[in-house]
Amino acid sequence: MKTEQSNRFSVDPAELQRQSEYSDMVRTVLSARFAPDRPKAFVHTYGCQGNVSDGEKIKGILCDLGFALTDDLQQADLVLYNTCAIREHAQDRVFGNVGKLKPIKEQKRSMLIALCGCMMQQDYVAEKIKKSYPYVDLVFGTHVIYKLPEFLYRCFCSGKRVFDLSGGDGNIVEGLPVHRDGSFKAWIPIMYGCNNFCSYCVVPLVRGRERSRSFEAVVEEARDLVNAGYKELTLLGQNVNSYNKDLDPSLRFPALLRAINAIPGDFIIRFMTSHPRDCSKELLQAMADCEKVAKHLHLPFQSGNDRVLREMNRHYDSAKYLSLIDEAYRLMPELSVTSDVIVGFPGETADEFEDTLSIVRRVRFTSLFTFIFSPRPGTKAAALEDPTPREEKNRRFKALTDLQESIAAQRTAAMRGKTYRVLVEEPGREEGFLSGRTEGNVIIEFPADASLIGTFQYVTVTEPKTWILKGELNP
Ligand code: SAH
Ligand code: SF4
Ligand code: F3S
Questions:
Q1: pTM of the full predicted structure?
Q2: N or C terminus of the chain: which is more exposed, having fewer CB within 10 Å?
Q3: Which CATH number fits domain 419-473: 3.60.20.30, 3.40.50.1970, 2.60.120.280, 2.40.50.140?
Q4: Which ligand has an atom closest to residue 313 CA?
Q5: How far, in Å, is the centroid of ligand 2 from the Cα of 72?
């Protein structure tokens, strides 16, 4: 068994040095064009938290190059969309929004338009952008974010379009600047890519092979964030349970949780996503033992039917899923469990869908992310026959969301009168209210002064609604 981490995914330091030289050249170009002002960049990220974390690196690089960030598209000198490919709908939204940039660019020819992220890592999308969206200047994939200085330099100096989708299996680049969106909640990617090849999923195709950051790098980042006053750290990976899978147990995910838990300070640790195939008793035990780890488990089950799970290539059955849940509730009776479900996988029958409802009734999730199957080009499931009409899929989807809604309402009703520790996050929807989250990831709103944002408070539930609780701050 290996005890040291291989660095076969590290990028050559000479290449990083080259990028730092490009950074200097971009700074010179930008100050010649914009001084005494700073050029403005509008950056928007679609998709999962992993992509949001990439977006924070992109913003970090741009700020390092001298850009100021703006929320006003019309003011922007650079517009960058960091895209998601998980479902067709996600891609349609991006194409729609890129289309809307055309008249803006016609008014302001100097505006640079850049697209990156998972959607761009697919050849057919990059081709479509090349042919049908000639006003897009720069397209790059998920593996070359660190080359942004070079791409911008080439765009500015050659005036030609730049396309770079290289990277194949993926890499790990440490030390990029990060512009974090929040001052008390932070994302920490612990691994990249995915090896699971669930038959419906595009992620392995656009994010490359699974690779883990070093244990020390992750713990050091967590320590720095805690020292900088961050109150919530969320560890990210498509399958966190296989973090450092091939290495010594002292360097795997449960050990990582324990090491971060041991950092002194008042903060909370979250993580996502766990895959039931690799979710171990050791992980559940570590969750139960570590007082800073939120008692919230996001454990996607996707389908309650064993034939469908096999077709999905998920490598567990409903019995294994339920035994994990039983063990988790045994160790942590107050645990909040959430999940992802796909409705209408090709060939799913009405009876097979009933098995999905049975799991929902049995586990009584806090909340569910529910999706109708979307065929993704290049995945195995996209080639399967799918005879079920859309109306029937919609019916199943509604049956699932109705069931979950009634369970959520019962669960929140049972929270009435109880007191929870809450990290206060932002203004609530009503004037004078703030909004925060319980450890179990339920939103609670209560009247309080905005100065409490970013602190932990105790809040008692006075009025439970289906998805959101209303409460009162404890004195
Ligand atoms: N790595 C995570 C999931 C990442 S994608 C895991 O394995 O649990 C988030 C969710 O999107 C998935 O859990 C799945 O429910 C949904 N999803 C992924 N591909 C999909 C597709 N082609 N159609 C519909 N939903 C999909
Ligand atoms: Fe996609 Fe499956 Fe990997 Fe999750 S585990 S990212 S669903 S292939
Ligand atoms: Fe989307 Fe890529 Fe995440 S496809 S869900 S942004 S890994």
A1: 0.96
A2: C
A3: 2.40.50.140
A4: 2
A5: 35
